[in-house]
């Protein structure tokens, strides 16, 4: 789908810190800085990939953007509206515009509820359609994602993993949103089923003019699906670039290490695997200066004390690194 460069969602210095309590009085001792100062624009019609190691904050970022997690600090501006401090009632029309596809669709479904009833809930909340019209809408949705009319009567345990993910996708698009957070939607699926679900996501994006925030640890899927890629480390941004530019010319040492781990056919020149030493620091006690300096192969003394500025390398390519 073509990206029209119009900003749909603007994220400004967003932070999500979880308090760590202890002692008899359960006082706050410190915080887990899951997301720590993210600023970016998401363009209408694009698929923005978010990648990084487990625990880097990518899923928390997606949930915070959707309002499933409360903001610690920052602003969320959706379609020109600053929704950061809106009440639940004020947020209701915007909730209709923003949906989520979960990594584990089975966990997000009520095992005692028919799939048809689960999909009807969105129409009950956001529309005044009578029961007959709601059923027609749900059957149309099931057909659109590759399921059958008789699946309406079935329960979650009667479906395969790929079918359940199609149900999750149907629920996400049911009320015509413009923005969807895809939280590792294919990570639990077989490779052949992954390809089918990815094609479905692309077809639906084209048909419904959707914008995706695609959270994933599968760098091959990200390259195939996304227009731009944000690389996160310890809740912070380290690199952001158009997908081809990032994969062909990764600049941040952390991005280089991530991409070097992608399996490649043994044809021609092979990229040398970069193995990072040390463990991922705790987000409750992140390093001073550059968050990556404890594992960085090119770190200098000033990297330990000075936080690198977020700067533009060239058109659309941004990085936070002193040495590049």
Structural class: alpha/beta
DSSP summary, beta strand count? 12
CATH topology of the domain at 7-88 and 216-263 and 271-319: Rossmann fold
Would you list the SSEs in sequence order as H and E?
EEEHEEHEHHHEHEHEEHHEE
Spatial order of strands in the largest sheet: 6-7-8-3-9-10-12-11
Distance between the termini: 33 Å
Q: What is the annotated CATH architecture of the domain at 7-88 and 216-263 and 271-319?
A: 3-Layer(aba) Sandwich
Per DSSP, what share of the residues sits in E-state strands of 2 or more residues?
15-25%
What is the makeup of the main sheet? 8 strands, mixed
Globally, the shape reads: globular
The low-pLDDT segments are none
Helix content: 25-40%
Number of helical segments? 9
CATH class of the domain at 7-88 and 216-263 and 271-319: Alpha Beta
Radius of gyration: 21 Å
Fourth-level CATH superfamily of the domain at 7-88 and 216-263 and 271-319: P-loop containing nucleotide triphosphate hydrolases
Characteristics of this structure?
eight-stranded mixed sheet; 324 residues; Rossmann fold; four-stranded antiparallel sheet; alpha/beta
Provide structural commentary.
The chain is 29% helix and 25% strand. With 324 residues, it is an alpha/beta fold. Helix 3 (115-126) crosses helix 4 (131-144) and helix 5 (161-173) packs parallel to helix 6.
Question: SSE layout and pairings?
Answer:
Layout: E1 7-22, E2 27-43, E3 47-51, H1 58-65, E4 73-78, E5 81-82, H2 88-95, E6 98-101, H3 115-126, H4 131-144, H5 161-173, E7 179-183, H6 191-208, E8 211-215, H7 219-225, E9 228-233, E10 236-242, H8 243-248, H9 253-260, E11 311-314, E12 317-319
Parallel strand pairs: 3-8, 3-9, 6-7, 7-8
Antiparallel strand pairs: 1-2, 1-4, 4-5, 9-10, 10-12, 11-12
Helix pairs in contact: 3-4, 5-6
């Amino acid at each position: 789908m073509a990206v029209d460069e119009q900003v749909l969602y603007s994220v400004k210095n967003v932070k999500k810190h979880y308090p760590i309590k202890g002692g008899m009085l359960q006082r706050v001792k410190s915080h887990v800085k899951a997301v720590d100062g993210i600023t970016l624009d998401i363009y209408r019609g694009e698929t923005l990939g978010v990648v990084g190691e487990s625990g880097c904050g990518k899923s928390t970022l997606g949930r915070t953007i959707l309002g499933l997690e409360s903001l610690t600090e920052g602003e969320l501006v959706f379609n020109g509206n600053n929704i950061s401090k809106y009440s639940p009632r004020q947020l209701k029309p915007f909730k209709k515009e923003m949906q989520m596809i979960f990594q584990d669709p089975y966990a997000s479904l009520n095992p005692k509820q028919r799939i048809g009833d689960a999909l009807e809930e969105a129409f009950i909340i956001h529309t005044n359609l009578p029961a007959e019209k709601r059923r027609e809408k749900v059957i149309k949705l099931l057909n659109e994602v590759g399921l059958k009319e008789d699946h309406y009567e079935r329960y979650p345990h009667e479906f395969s993993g790929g079918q359940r993910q199609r149900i999750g996708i149907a629920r996400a698009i049911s009320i015509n949103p413009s923005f969807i957070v895809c939280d590792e939607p294919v990570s639990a699926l077989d490779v052949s089923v992954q390809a089918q679900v990815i094609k479905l996501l692309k077809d639906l994006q084209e048909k419904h003019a959707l914008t995706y925030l695609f959270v994933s640890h599968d760098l091959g899927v990200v390259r195939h699906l996304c227009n731009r890629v944000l690389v996160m480390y310890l809740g912070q941004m380290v690199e952001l670039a158009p997908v081809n530019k990032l994969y062909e010319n990764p600049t941040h040492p952390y991005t280089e290490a991530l991409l070097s781990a992608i399996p490649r056919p043994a044809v021609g020149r092979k990229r040398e695997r970069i193995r990072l030493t040390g463990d991922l620091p705790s987000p409750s006690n992140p390093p001073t200066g550059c968050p990556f300096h404890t594992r960085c192969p090119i770190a200098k003394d000033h990297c330990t004390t000075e936080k690198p500025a977020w700067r533009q390398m060239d058109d659309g390519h941004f990085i936070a690194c002193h040495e590049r």
